[in-house]
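Kindly review this record before class:
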Amino acid sequence: MLKMVVMIKRKEGISRAEFRDYYETSHCKLMQHFEDCIIDYRRSYPVPELVDAGTVYNPSGAEPPDPDNQHFDCVTEVWLKSEDALRTLYARMAEPELAAIFLDDTKRFTDRSQTRFVICHEHQGL
């Protein structure tokens, strides 16, 4: 299954709560432009108060999470119907009117310079 994963950092000066509220009550509505392209659309928000860097089991040797310095404020997942659906989504995003709407909206609450995304083939199971 094809999936777009977007890691988003909130704009400086906006609290986590303000970021989440704006995303859920305003920005999400813009995805209606792509309903025919997507299967599912989910947002996951880090819970820094549950991270305890002193007790994290870390066999990989990677840097333990720092609850005071979360790299992203939301991980968004968009499951797409097909590669053609992804091309359609990209084409619509390039339309000047829709592009301007998205750009204006994301500038309100995100640090666009820190946003990262990747297109993945998802596999399930253990």
Summary: The first helix runs from residue 16 to 25. The chain has a mean pLDDT of 88.
